[in-house]
Batch of 4 targets.
Target 1
Amino acid sequence: MTFNWFNRKFDQKAEESKADEPAQPEPEPTPAATSNPSDVDESYLSFAKAAYENIKKKRQQQEELVQPVEAIAPQEILADTVEAPEDAVPVSPEGFSVEAVNQFLGTLEDVKNDLTAAIASPESLEPAPEVAAIPAEAPPEPAAPLPFWAQSEADREARLERLRATAIEEEQPLAAVQPPSAIEEAPAFALDEGFLWSTEVLAAQGRRAEDITLEEITWLKRLRQGLDKTRRGLINQLKAIVGQGPLNQDAVTEIEALLLQADAGVEATDKIIAALQTKLREEVLPPEEAIAYLKKLLRDLLDRPLQSHNPVFVPEKDTLNIWLITGVNGAGKTTTIGKLAHIAQKSGYRCLIAAADTFRAAAVEQVKVWGQRSGVDVIANPGQNTDPAAVVFDGIAAAQSRGTELLLVDTAGRLQNKKNLMDELTKIRRIIDKKAGNARVESLLVLDATLGQNGLRQARVFSEAAQLSGVVLTKLDGTAKGGVALAVVEELGLPIRFIGAGEGIEDLRPFSSYEFVEALISG
Ligand SMILES: Nc1nc2c(ncn2[C@@H]2O[C@H](COP(=O)(O)OP(=O)(O)OP(=O)(O)O)[C@@H](O)[C@H]2O)c(=O)[nH]1
């Protein structure tokens, strides 16, 4: 089953039939059933342990499948098992002719029949001369262990069982298990604090322990790490403020300063503070409930645009989806295209890239590099400054001839004046309408989170020029301005669809308001 990284679920087909239904809003995170903190910890711990054991088991099975097979020439196998037929003519040391192999299989059949007969009536056995010659007391030589693939089913299962039973905690570097090209570095796999936090976040969103993958854990750990700086700024002071006792006006004033410092922007901050003050007048909030209420406010604010935009952002299978990727040069547009192409490939989509940001030849070359890294072809026009619409036209033609499901278009990246930008994007849309009228078109704005409020001004120009369906927030790792996500949503009214938290090809995932707020406030 293919894990679809766009909706974070297995079995794309089953999901597809659901994709047509009106998507349900994200379920409210379900804190563990009991209210007793130690029970909650216990239930999360056992959930984490189950997820850990399951991932460990999958890795062991994967190791068996990937482990290089000992290169034993057929003669050695034959020597170990049955005498090679005299007239077998080795076509080369590595192999036998087909008829010889068939003959050999025929011999095996005879051996099997003889063994069956012998088991049925042992008294009928004549000791074979060479066996008779071995003195009874000499133990037979232990047969050299056959390579895993040559073992019988029963032997294999027994070996796997032994492996599971003796599986030790020490970590096999994942690179030993998967071809190095498949991953950039072996993510650590240990039942550590990051693992526990990640499984807790996934459990609270309704995930089952057996469905949790190491890649999801690795991503959540990266997200949490990426938001470290913002969180440290927020949470230490937040806990100090809220920890002083029931939420009071001073605390609310300090929270306001914290949100502005994390670049949440004035509008989002005002909304959150107003809601807190209303709550303050209604009831006394002890510290942990105040934190929980603040988290809910942030989640609701981040999810609000989903009421006016499609809550599910998943390319439709067996259909041409065209995603226009816009954003100012340096925001991480090219990197984002490479990462999106990578998760599309991993999720089983036929993907193609059109390098239509032709303003800089270097940008086209860079897209090609990311195409290679993600294993996705890039359609580009040689020569500098060619017409972006021409590249889009070629990209659509190639996509239609190949049955591509997701065409990623790298479009204008320079922040020239709004008019030029609008003209260029309008022209591209016109080409798409003419050439691929039934394609599902989305337009994503790539925004550099480290720019904070400055990035927002750029975003406004793009959001007025292009009919945007969402934002990709990049460079969340290492910035203290993680709060800009709140400003983007509140001031642009656009949903955040993906977030980037690193330069690596794995460092982009669909945005989850629950995970983001947990990493921001209690990671
Ligand atoms: N730390 C970090 N760096 C990132 C991230 N995304 C992109 N970058 C880096 O940001 C720089 C710009 O990324 P690009 O993808 O080239 O940006 P661009 O928008 O295509 O800009 P041009 O290449 O000038 O068109 C590169 O050094 C990337 O490695 C991220 O999520 N985290």
Target 2
Amino acid sequence: MMTIEIRTVGVLGAGQMGSGIAQVAATAGYTVKLADVDLERATKATSKIAAMLGKLVEKGKLTAEAAEATAKRLIPVAGIADFGDCDLVIEAATENVDLKLKLFAACDAAMKPDALLASNTSSISVTKLAAVTKRPGKVLGMHFMNPVPLMRLVEIVKAVQTEPETYTTIKEAAEKMGKTVVTSNDAPGFLVNRILIPMLCEAMFAVQEGVGTPEDIDTGAKLGLNPPMGPLELADLIGLDTVLAIANVLYTDIGDTKYRAPTLLKNLVRAGWVGKKGGRGFYVYDEKGQKVPEGFVGTITLNRPDKLNALNAELVGELHRVLAEIRRDKDLRALIVTGAGDKAFAAGADIAAMSTMTGPEAKAFGELGHAVGAQMETLAIPVIAAVNGFALGGGCEMALACDFIHASTKAKFGQPEVNLGVIPGFGGTNRLARRVGIGRARELCFTGDVIGAEEALRIGLVNGIHAPEELLGKVKEIAAKIATKGPLAVAQAKRVLLRGLDVPLPTANELEVQAFAALFGSEDQREGMAAFLGKRPANFVGR
Ligand SMILES: CCCCCCCC/C=C\C/C=C/C(=O)SCCNC(=O)CCNC(=O)[C@H](O)C(C)(C)COP(=O)(O)OP(=O)(O)OC[C@H]1O[C@@H](n2cnc3c(N)ncnc32)[C@H](O)[C@@H]1OP(=O)(O)O
């Protein structure tokens, strides 16, 4: 029997797997036609692949010429009807048997008679897929691993009907794409998922039965067994809906209860918590897919909106108590301070309360304010001010005691105490000078001028400004990002940056080198560096 020479490859499905397959096929020199539900999605995916190739050029892993030539070989197409001249079509649609059967029949009708048809299915019977086509001998499974450009394996699955020439041609094509091939007969889960899915489910049963936390299970597996990621992290990456679908295939087709899916997995999928792609599974993920340690970001809201969150002794005393509690909380990794309502962060110390104060009372009030500022500055975790409106007088000073400030576009800052015949009493003079420079601090303190967000950004008082409705979300994103870093390292960076401000540079540098050295030998230092070298995200524990 004649074997076809593969020159043009069609890829059906421009999601993560399909895009990865298209990338490796084009890199191997094949002309690739990429299709999805419409041309727009296919075009978007091709641009993404081109961007990915650009990154490889930046990293020196691909020459600019090779990247350009590869990108040129990638052609987005409107749909299956464009696969007429393809020598091989690889279907990489959602893992749904009815959908794949429909797509297989449609591909079969559109393709030339001698072309080969493969499915990237991870669990569905390839024999069943082959049976809906008029070319069953030219069908097989070509199961790539995720992420396709990085993972070396392709599992080739022989359907009962697959002809030997089909197998040989596809094996050669996979090898040309830089992959190592293992061969499986068509049995539930094939080779890889037959082993993997029960292992992932076992980790989930352990969570379900309260044997250990997801973090401990993943850390135990990683450090004890040496895979690059823990089973629950991996399940989140694969997609819990996919894991459940494969577990169900194994259970139904093999009929052994050892393959049943844990109730916990079913419930997470029912809740829509399908893992990384959905933002939540066993872990929580931010928009960039970075793991966000849950419960690690705290928020303090100054809650006296009818008085624009003006700071009276009661509110400042409460702050002092809450910050002392936060200091004892070993789980928190970042803290956000913001104001209730849409008008103010804090419009200053409470003028009504201050109006009758004697000198000693004002001193005690100022000292309480300074104690709160010192608490915020010396917390081991970063404190971020989300300034949503007026931050005047004591309000501006409170924001300055935070590690940095982000503000809404309608925020207003100022030290207007001179209008009241007093001066800032909670660090407004000195912290402001350190933040924006002595000249600007003098002008603000002497004139009592109130400045808008743009000006605050220009002079470096705030790090970023955002639309009012986006402010808190943006600040939470920043806090969540910090929460994924090594907590010991962040704490040392905060300490050194603060202390270094008040000592000569050589002493500051000495502080830095001591802190740098002190981090070596910590679990986090070992984990961070091992994660980099292992090309995986780090999982820091703060020890
Ligand atoms: C961890 C921090 C601890 C800090 C502890 C501080 C101790 C340090 C001691 C001293 C240093 C600090 C000194 C100061 O902060 S002095 C105060 C500086 N601030 C101001 O001067 C601003 C005063 N407010 C205004 O100018 C305006 O309210 C405005 C421009 C901000 C907004 O104007 P508008 O939109 O017209 O709103 P209202 O004026 O109607 O305000 C609504 C409501 O809120 C009351 N209010 C506003 N600010 C204060 C305030 N600072 N103290 C008390 N009450 C305030 C205002 O009176 C209104 O109340 P209502 O009439 O009963 O409705």
Target 3
Amino acid sequence: MLTVGIAGLGAIGLTLAKALDAGVEGLRLVAVAARDRDKARAAVAGFASPPVVTDVADLAGLADVVVEAAPAAAFEAIVSPAIEAGRIAVVSSVGALLPRMQLVERARETGARIIVPTGALLGLDAVRAAAEGKVESVTLVTRKPPRGLAGAPYLEQHGIDVTTITTPTRVFAGSAREGAIGFPANVNVAAALALAGIEPDRTRLEIWADPTVTRNTHTVTVEADTVRLTMTIENVPSEENPRTGKITPLSLLACLRGLTATLKVGT
Ligand SMILES: NC(=O)C1=CN([C@@H]2O[C@H](COP(=O)(O)OP(=O)(O)OC[C@H]3O[C@@H](n4cnc5c(N)ncnc54)[C@H](OP(=O)(O)O)[C@@H]3O)[C@@H](O)[C@H]2O)C=CC1
Ligand SMILES: O=C([O-])CC(=O)C(=O)O
């Protein structure tokens, strides 16, 4: 049995918390944290087994597994205590890990683990397998309804107003590392892909603001010596946060199940 603490109770965290409260073999939700404590308390009040509502820094003292499901700006405050305490940190804001790879070194010293779920993407098992061989290129093309990109720092810096876009428009082309900086709340999938494959500077990313799509759509292309992959996922945006695909909390749940499962499927 692993105990679980969740930081962030939004589109990802609250859905995951509800699923754990409904009962998942081998996992028990014991604590949650969010910015607004009263709101968090109200969110879990009706749970069958209400978890403790606490500060993000205290989750690691209460749970074996700390799930980060908060904005990127809170990443370090949530994940560092978990690493210092030697816990398992399951992270959603993957873009925030890229400039903090020293946390991985620190985890090696404390015995902690950092787990990046597939999240809103697909096929990281195949990308990881390919990366055991020789990979020539990895490309991600992301298309989102314009409102799924609104507020990104890169758009503001370049004077791009996505709300006025009426035809599919490429608003960014660059590396996964540059994308994670410019779109911290929109392309965690690119960061996860980079960590699975050939590094953030070599992973190419295009972002399209596309008024013709209703789903957050990601296409991964990999050219390797053993395989050529083209994979597309079309995510239904969640009601709580249209930037976040509804599959994301389900991916985290599947990931958590894998921590205790006797039968584990996939890489
Ligand atoms: N890896 C992946 O594939 C994906 C990753 N993501 C990323 O996952 C993260 C969470 O996404 P999502 O659930 O949609 O976000 P939401 O905006 O729906 O929810 C964020 C939650 O974090 C809480 N929060 C805000 N500030 C803090 C803080 N300083 N400390 C603790 N909690 C805080 C909020 O609480 P309050 O309401 O009190 O402010 C809220 O409960 C984001 O970084 C997002 O970009 C999203 C989709 C896919
Ligand atoms: O990568 C992200 O942050 C979110 C995303 O694109 C999605 O949910 O489809």
Target 4
Amino acid sequence: MVKVTVCGAAGGIGQPLSLMFKLNPYVTTLALYDVVNVPGVGKDLSHIDTDTKLESYLPENDGLEKALTGSDLVIIPAGVPRKPGMTRDDLFAINAGIIRDLANGIAQFAPSAFVLVISNPVNSTVPIVAEILKKNNVFNPQKLFGVTTLDCVRANTFVAELSKDKEASAFDTRVLGGHSGETIVPVFSQSAPEVYKELSDEQKAALVHRVQFGGDEVVKAKNGAGSATLSMAYAGYKLGHALLAAINDTPNIIESTFVYLKDSKIKGAAEAFKYINEKLKDSDSSDVDFFALPVVLSSNGIEEIKWDILEKVDAKETELLKIATGQLSKNIAKGTAFIAGN
Ligand SMILES: NC(=O)C1=CN([C@@H]2O[C@H](COP(=O)(O)OP(=O)(O)OC[C@H]3O[C@@H](n4cnc5c(N)ncnc54)[C@H](O)[C@@H]3O)[C@@H](O)[C@H]2O)C=CC1
Ligand SMILES: O=C([O-])CC(=O)C(=O)O
């Protein structure tokens, strides 16, 4: 029996993401929550002849409580998307409060659920969720995931375009750091070595830049009508499905996610925290408490952090990681301070 809750289910990401979970055989109940339009989305999906039971809730009549109670996995694509000319950080003013309120609901009604945060700016919204869960004494770092899967998906697609003989599905690129611009660091030296070795320095730089700013490509092409929704729904589903498979005892699944490190008991967290903060960050900027890294999944959630990839990356990638930590420490501190100041 697995209940999945999608918060922001009537949105551009929420709808296709909910469709995919309606088709997932692990899911017995799918609860949709949104502040608008969700009864229609829920009714529509409920006609699909898969066995997953559909529930949909607006905020009135304790909707959030009902959507979250008994939930095993909560996925959050709630909040506003970018328009051309905006950075992800420009979304903080609106989305931080939305995420705080949803996190308070999770702390109260689904304190032991796995939580996947899609809403931007991920580098700050994930720290917001962690702070709320900590305040309520229900924080378990094994169960909190910042969704950076779309960066990996893009990296696989873009590197395949440069490969002579391999399709996108042949790649499993690791992307480290965070989820915005220069905080996104694909490490092709570790995951696509054959293709990577053949590229010139200019080609390597262009490939990395394309992954870092892939979101902008979509924002520009949509021309005011939002940001990535369909590729994001796919990516969110990919991580969610991997987690459901791990919960159901499929061994050795590795996915990348923006994971909490500081004071965490997860295997590899202390080593990751030390390496990032001592070797990749200026001593005068605040701690980088979260970082996107490959993790091994189990029925407990994040079982192990594969931090040693940080030691293996090449000199140029190390330089990029150092640039990433500067921005990331500010983004994380901003999220944490938002809750400390509330
Ligand atoms: N992590 C990632 O890689 C990516 C993250 N995103 C982010 O995902 C978020 C959602 O994007 P879209 O689906 O395109 O936006 P959208 O505007 O189409 O949908 C957002 C939905 O959230 C709902 N919502 C607003 N406040 C809410 C609340 N308090 N509780 C529940 N639902 C609420 C809205 O009613 C709407 O249905 C944005 O912040 C966007 O930047 C988008 C793409 C990739
Ligand atoms: O670019 C955006 O604002 C949405 C996003 O995070 C992405 O597509 O990577």
